[in-house]
Every structure is written in structure tokens, then in C-alpha cells.
Specification:
This is NTP pyrophosphatase (Non-canonical NTP hydrolase). By secondary structure, this protein is of the alpha+beta class. The chain has one domain. The protein has helices spanning 3-16, 26-45, 82-100, 104-115; strands at residues 54-58, 64-67, 71-72, 75-76, 78-80. A hairpin with a 5-residue loop joins strand 1 (54-58) and strand 2. The longest helix is centred in the N-terminal third of the chain and has 20 residues, at 26-45.
């Protein structure tokens, strides 16, 4: 799939799951993207490896069970870990672009072309 096809798919899924039944502000949308980045940082702080993935299942008693098994019986587990949180960031960005009519594919292409012209470590900012 091309980027704008992924944007459309992510947004259509969010709409079908009811996430746009009530309007949310652009600020809320950005905060949700930021929350996924914070979850990735927390996994890193908890010494999770960058490629480590585990799956969570809710038991009938309401407890969360973690395993490295993607499937337990007929149930797919919720993927967790830094890769999953980074995927969530991208999915939320795609959803936002779908909601606001942003041509993300063009924006990325233009920005990458511009960034290629910038000097080494431009800006001189420190973390």
C-alpha cells in the first residue's frame, strides 16, 4: 500500500470503531499521538529491548496476562512493546491526516527532499 492508502485505511478503521463520533480538537489529536510516544519511552525506561514484543490477553476475571504467544486459542493478543507503540504513533498520524484531509505522502516527500539539502546537524539544538 502507498502512504495515502494507509492513511485512508487507518482513518476508516478509526471512524468504524467510533473514534470520530464526537469531534475532537486538533490539540487532543496531537496529545493522543504524544501519548503513544510516551508509552514507547516508558517501555524503554523499563529496560525493554527495541525489538521486544509481547502480547496481552484479558482473562475472564479481568486480569491481564502477558505472553510471547501471538495467539491463544482463537484470540489474538494485543501487541505490546516499543515496536507496537511506534506503530501506534504512525497509525494515529495516519488517522489524523485522514480526518483533516492532509496529503501525507506529498508532505513526506517534500520534507525529505528539503531535509537532504540541510547542513550537517543543522540548528545546533541539544536535547
Amino acid at each position: 500500500m502507498r502512504i495515502n492508502e494507509l492513511v485512508k485505511a487507518a482513518h476508516e478503521n478509526a471512524v468504524s470503531k467510533g473514534w470520530w463520533e464526537e469531534d475532537r480538537s486538533f490539540g487532543e489529536t496531537i496529545a493522543l499521538i504524544h501519548s503513544e510516544a510516551s508509552e514507547a519511552l516508558e517501555d524503554h525506561r523499563n529496560k525493554k529491548d527495541f525489538s521486544e514484543v509481547w502480547y496481552e490477553y484479558e482473562t475472564p476475571e479481568g486480569f491481564i496476562e502477558e505472553t510471547t504467544d501471538r495467539e491463544l486459542g482463537d484470540e489474538l493478543g494485543k501487541p505490546c512493546g516499543i515496536p507496537s507503540e511506534l506503530a501506534d504513533i504512525v497509525i494515529r498520524v495516519f488517522d489524523a491526516c485522514g480526518q483533516y484531509g492532509i496529503d501525507l505522502e506529498t508532505a513526506i516527500t517534500e520534507k525529505m527532499a528539503y531535509n537532504a539539502t540541510r547542513p550537517q546537524r543543522h540548528g545546533g539544538k541539544k536535547l
